[in-house]
């Protein structure tokens, strides 16, 4: 290992390699601090060629490489194991925005660029980069692509996968593949980039991407409504779809438990007085009349008693305050204590029934737990987190919740990825032929198993 570290230092220079224990610490554990590791060193390349050099040197030494962006993931997918024999490859020095085309609606950006900085650069060009989630101030573009990040705008713009037009990647043998094409239509052969989006660095390392931009909407309407139950929220979604169409960019379901946690730990209170389930809706458009249409949705929902109270933001500051309620849920839950997190999706129309059945199953099989359910109802993704006591077994709770997900034809990971957190659950719930196909792809692209081993797929 000492020889490899010396060769990496020669390839990267003094600023490109970290070896001191204090310097390694931030790269050694995940955001939730449940997967501690011990890297041999942290390589910090400043260019694609340097990424390729690191990968080649590690391959020659038979040492695994763990790619890492902002390390904001919730599944432990970007941290090394505790062996002290894995090299963390941090993309944090590759921050360039190589190009922005406001007419063609694209931007070319390096993997280490913080997502918010990429959003701001697009904004200065009068355009919008629609990828948006709570950790965007720390998360990096490459990590968002590697995890196929979801977030707050999926209902309108889709997952990150749908916003990637081209990729530059480094393969497990150090080969650089330049596919940075800003094309909307390209049927010339396999669309190979799709293999790497969402692969969590197990098939190749994203070093740059061409991302799709959209025109920045001129008008935004944000509303918070109290609803009697999730079934009423589903009817409200249907109403909003009919009246607001594809201007809807966020439709969030928030439980009473979530709001109570936010009030307790952040001192934020809902401006809607009624207790119970809440829905946060945001729509955006460049055409006039959006606010009037949103007011109509609110009035109709109240008339039909699918909402019991509601407020429509009068300013951007008020809209931000409404979003703060939703975006503070995760941190409030962390302050409350131990929880078992589930990032699941089911068909949108099945969400009320899923919530009912999962609650009944937990009440019977894990008494004393509390459910904190919230998330992106508009795209079928619910963060179904279970607050537990020390005596509760996390694996048993996973089996209970994911068993219900299976019965509704859902997925055990909607947007957070598998990482190392859900490897066993993926093997348990994914069809054997799908796991076998994934292993064939992994073997073809990373035959030595040196790219982020132990993530997504169990070690063979």
Automatic annotation (TrEMBL):
Listed name of the protein: FAD-binding oxidoreductase
Species per Swiss-Prot/TrEMBL record: Methylobacterium oryzihabitans
PROSITE patterns the UniProt entry points to: FAD_PCMH
Family: Belongs to the FAD-binding oxidoreductase/transferase type 4 family.
Record keywords, A-Z: FAD, Flavoprotein
Molecular function GO labels: catalytic activity; FAD binding
GO biological process, one term: respiratory electron transport chain
Record SUPFAM superfamilies: FAD-binding/transporter-associated domain-like, FAD-linked oxidases, C-terminal domain
Pfam family, one: FAD-oxidase_C
Residues annotated as domain FAD-binding PCMH-type: 35-216
Reported cofactor(s): FAD
Alphabetical list of InterPro entries matching this protein: FAD-bd_oxidored_4_C, FAD-bd_PCMH, FAD-bd_PCMH-like_sf, FAD-bd_PCMH_sub1, FAD-bd_PCMH_sub2, FAD-linked_Oxase-like_C, FAD-oxidored/transferase_4, Oxid_FAD_bind_N
């Amino acid at each position: 290992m000492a020889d490899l570290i010396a060769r990496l230092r020669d390839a990267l220079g003094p600023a490109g390699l970290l070896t001191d224990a204090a310097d390694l610490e931030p790269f050694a554990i995940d955001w939730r601090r449940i997967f501690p590791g011990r890297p041999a060193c942290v390589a910090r390349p400043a260019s694609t060629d340097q990424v390729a050099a690191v990968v080649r040197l590690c391959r020659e030494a038979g040492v695994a490489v763990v790619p890492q962006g902002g390390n904001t993931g919730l599944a432990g997918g970007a941290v090394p194991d505790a062996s002290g024999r894995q090299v963390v490859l941090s993309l944090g020095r590759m921050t360039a925005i190589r190009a922005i085309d406001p007419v063609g609606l694209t931007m070319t950006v390096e993997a280490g660029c913080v997502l918010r900085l990429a959003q701001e650069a697009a904004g200065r060009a009068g355009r919008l980069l629609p990828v948006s989630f709570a950790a965007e101030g720390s998360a990096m573009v490459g990590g968002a692509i590697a995890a196929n990040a979801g977030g707050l705008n999926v209902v309108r713009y889709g997952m990150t996968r749908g916003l990637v037009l081209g990729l530059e990647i480094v393969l497990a043998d150090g080969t650089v593949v330049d596919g940075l094409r800003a094309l909307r239509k390209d049927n010339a052969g396999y669309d190979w980039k799709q293999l790497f989006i969402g692969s969590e660095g197990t098939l190749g390392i994203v070093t740059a991407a061409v991302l799709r931009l959209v025109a920045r909407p001129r008008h935004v309407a944000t509303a918070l409504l109290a609803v009697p139950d999730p079934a009423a929220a589903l009817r409200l979604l249907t109403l909003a779809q009919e009246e607001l169409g594809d201007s809807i960019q966020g439709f969030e379901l928030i439980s009473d438990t979530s709001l109570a946690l936010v009030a307790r730990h952040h001192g934020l209170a809902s401006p809607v007085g009624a207790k119970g389930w809440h829905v946060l809706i945001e729509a955006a458009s460049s055409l006039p009349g959006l606010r009037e249409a949103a007011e109509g949705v609110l009035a109709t929902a109240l008339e039909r008693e699918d909402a019991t109270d509601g407020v429509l933001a009068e300013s951007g500051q008020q809209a931000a305050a409404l979003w703060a309620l939703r975006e503070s849920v995760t941190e409030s839950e962390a302050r409350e204590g131990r929880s078992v997190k589930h990032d699941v999706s089911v068909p949108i129309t099945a969400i009320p029934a899923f919530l009912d059945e999962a609650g009944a199953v937990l009440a019977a099989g894990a008494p004393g737990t509390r459910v904190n359910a919230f998330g992106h109802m508009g795209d079928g993704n619910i963060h179904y987190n279970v607050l537990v006591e020390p005596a509760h077994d996390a694996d048993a709770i996973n089996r209970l919740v994911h068993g219900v997900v299976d019965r509704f034809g859902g997925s055990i990971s909607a947007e957070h990825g598998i990482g190392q957190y859900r490897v066993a659950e993926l093997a348990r719930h994914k069809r054997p032929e799908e796991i076998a196909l994934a292993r064939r792809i992994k073997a073809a692209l990373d035959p030595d198993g040196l790219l982020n081993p132990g993530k997504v797929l169990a070690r063979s």
